[in-house]
Amino acid sequence: MRLDIFSLFPEAFDWLQTQRPVQNALREGNELRLFNYRDSAPPPSRKVDDSPYGGGAGMVLRVDIIDKALQDAYGEGKRPRIVLLTPTGRLLDDELADELVAEPHVAMLCGRYEGFDERIHEHLADDEVSIGRYVLAGGELPAMVVADVLMRKLPGALGNASSAAEDSYGQVLEGMPEYPHYTRPPVHRGWKVPEVLLSGDHEKIREWRLERSRERARAYAEATGEAHPKPAGGAQNSASRTE
Ligand code: ADE
Questions:
Q1: 2, 87, 93, 103: which is the annotated catalytic residue?
Q2: Rounded to an integer, what is the distance from CA 160 to the centroid of its chain?
Q3: Which atom of ligand 1 is nearest to the CA of 133?
């Protein structure tokens, strides 16, 4: 897939690009491109924002500048799926990540200041995505979260036999949280690794792990009052089916 990120701080993504799963995904032929809104703003000021009509605090990202940035990037050609990062958007979860990673081309627009001129929401964006119900200073951290989630789902990104489908909330665990992991030493300060994991009995280990995932899903449901995974989210976990 190709993932484009529009931001006032493209250098914020330098670290992301050093990460192994991202590098692997890029080596597999995927692309990550960064764009600076300011390159599409008129010189000499290169101003991208202005004060809100009607008064009020803060500055608002201008629709003409964002429109021009998209025009400069894509011209009259086919547009990618354009995702605005906003605190009020659709909450990011594994289901949304699967939906986005299935797209051949996605562009994420990072906000700053008080946010985007409403016409950007109305006329330029296909989706609005939030990484949680809190307000960050800008969309760069959310874009990095989304990029990380998407990149590690791409074939070859995890670089070995494992795949993101085996993660918590993934398809292999039918949307349930992942089971606990242990490694050496087998005992530390009297804290033991469960016997079954040392038994070499792969069938027993598989059953034990599945049961731990179900337990975690039940504990989540009890703590929050929410089904886990969400009933609307396609696959139901076996725990909720048997209840
Ligand atoms: N921009 C500011 N806060 C955000 C959030 N929580 N999610 C996505 N974009 C944001």
A1: 87
A2: 21
A3: 6
Domains of the chain: 2-153 (3.40.1280.10), 168-242 (1.10.1270.20)
Annotated active-site residue 152? The verdict is: yes
Q: What is the pLDDT of residues 160-203, one digit of tens each?
A: 756 787 788 887 788 899 999 999 999 999 999 999 999 999 99
CA distance 115 to 112: 6
Enter the pTM of the model: 0.89
Cβ of 86 below 6 Å from ligand 1: yes
197: Cα within 13 Å, side-chain hemisphere: 15
Alpha-carbon distance 198 to 157, whole Å? 29
Give the integer Cα–Cα distance in Å for 25 and 154. Answer: 6
Closest Cα partner for 122 from 72, 97, 86?
86
